[in-house]
Amino acid sequence: MAMNSGGNNRRFMSEINVTPLVDVMLVLLIIFMVAAPMMMQGVDVNLPKTTTKNIKTADEPLMLTVNKKKEIFLENHPIELDRLELKIKKIFENRREKEVLLRADQDVPYGFIIDVMARVKNAGINKLGMVTEPLD
Q: How wide is the angle at C-alpha 102 spanned by C-alphas 121 and 134, nearest 5°?
């Protein structure tokens, strides 16, 4: 009686099963889609609405925010109006692109915004943009 050891014709599967990977990626995509709007940084202000084109920038500009209580924030850090010019000079002393985006609540008096803008320009900023909401 002879034993046949070569009768087992099983082959190994050489393909990768990507179904679990696709499932994980789909779950991550949904999580990031839900979390992205919550990651919006800055102080909450009621921006004026206008029709303008978006500004294209190479570097991330500094965000300057003025809320309706006339409180000023550099990024998310509060700062007094008297110290604004000096602080901006220090921030941009080693930067080549000197760009600031101003987000101001629409209820802030025009004169106060002009005062803030003048101090930013006196600090040596050559690009000062204003952030607005698009018209519906």
A: 135
Residue ranges and CATH numbers for the domains of the chain are 49-134 (3.30.420.270)
Q: Phi, psi (5° rounding) for residue 119?
A: -70, -35
Encode 62-97 in three state secondary structure. EEEEECCCCCEEECCEEECHHHHHHHHHHHHCCCCC
Judging by beta carbons within 10 Å of its beta carbon (0-12, 13-18, 19+), is residue 65 exposed, middle or buried?
Answer: buried
Q: What is the pLDDT of residues 9-52, one digit of tens each?
A: 677 767 788 888 899 999 999 988 888 766 655 566 666 666 66
HSE of 79 in the Cβ direction (CA atoms, 13 Å)?
Answer: 19
